[in-house]
Amino acid sequence: MGSWNFKRLIAASVVMLFVWSLSGILLLRLNMEPAPEANSAPASSIRVLIRTGTESSALRKLVEPIRQETGIGVEMIELGREGYFTYVGTQLLSGSDTFDIVFLPNTWIAQFAANKAIVPLDEYIAEAMRRDPVSFDLDDFLAISVYNGEIFALPTDISTHFLYYRSDLIPEPPETWDDVYEIAERHSAFVRTDSPTKWGLAMPGVVPEERTKIFASLLWSFGGDFLDEGGGTVLLDSDASIRSGEYLARLVRERLVPGDLLSWDFIRTRDALLAGEIAMAAPYWNAAYTAIRQSDSPYRDVIKIALLPGVRQSDGTVRRVPFQHSWTMAINASSRNKEAAWTFLEFITGKRGGMMYAEAGGVPARRSLLGHPDLQSKRPEFPLVLESMEMAESEPSVPYYPAMVSIVEQALAKTVTLYDDPRQAFLAAATELRRISMRAGKQTGG
Length: 446
Hints:
With 446 residues, the chain is an alpha+beta fold. Helices cover 44% and strands 14% of the residues. The chain has helices at 3-20, 28-31, 54-60, 63-70, 84-94, 109-114, 122-131, 133-136, 177-186, 211-221, 239-253, 266-274, 288-293, 338-349, 351-359, 367-370, 373-378, 382-389, 401-416, 422-443, and strands at residues 45-51, 73-79, 101-105, 145-147, 150-166, 280-285, 303-306, 311-312, 318-319, 324-331. Strands 1, 2, 3, 4, 5, 6, 7 and 10 form an 8-stranded mixed β-sheet that branches. A two-stranded antiparallel ribbon has the order 8-9. A hairpin with a 5-residue loop joins strand 8 and strand 9. The longest helix has 22 residues, at 422-443. The two termini are 13 Å apart. 48% of the residues are buried.
């Protein structure tokens, strides 16, 4: 098949994620801030498309400092979480110049890079390194978004998974998933009527963004994977991968986790911790820690964080593989203000801008900032973020990523609802994933 069919495959993958967000389309005009007419902004002003959340709140605090230090005015187009991906895909793939900079998770970079919807940054980066290698320092980044050997985005934020636990009930955090199971059993009201918590364990399980990512930490800890490193071999039906699915099904079957887990999201999980409903949350996002510390919950001071558990190996070590992904900034290929867009991007991802961004509430993707003593005193979760990142992995960066996620999420839904045996669910998903992977490989000459 020709390149046209491959482009159709990528487009179809994007459409799958659009479907998840269709219910938010009508909200886009309500959530989006007014922007000037296309092409009316001067070169010294740029428009940044970003999703509502802690990241956008932090960035807003930097708009004036960025203008003062770079001369670049920043207009933010802020969209709600529900409709964000629909708008991003529609605008980028249609060649719209409504925005100059777009806020993207690293897993979306490959598909937009393959469609030439975002700009390679290598020449800009080379010039920045020549001008000030100490301040920019590419090697200091914890993650770089590369496609076909070119850098297409730089990270502003890092996300990873922690174990959250009630230290008044659990003096020492569990090291392995077997330990988690035993502790969850002791703190589940369905197993022990005298349990102080309703469930021993919970984690987010909604789609999009949650189910596959949360499961990834379990999958990798058990030695499984979605694909091999090159993306050409499907591993979802390996024995190790299936064991991770069986562990998840066991938690559900024994009622150690909520029965409606597929409806639990970031907020529901956080609120359950704050309300004393659960003894542990894992895998769960590092971003919840600040909100927990700033809450008025009576359990605020006893909710602690620790490294994500793992699987004990034959030599006694524990294999821990937390999930990590980065939120990045990329330049729209249709932007009329690419130079100004790069000036903004260089500042916000640089060490000085990153320091300001962290103080405003962001989680910078630079080792030097996560390890900075001043920031660690203000953000006590930073040392654990940095430690977790040393062993963390990312999802495959492939052009058919949305299609892969859709397939895996269906298998996980069957597993969590006990609709199907994990082995059968994973075998069926791997067959479908293998078909898509092979087709994509043929189109790219793989």
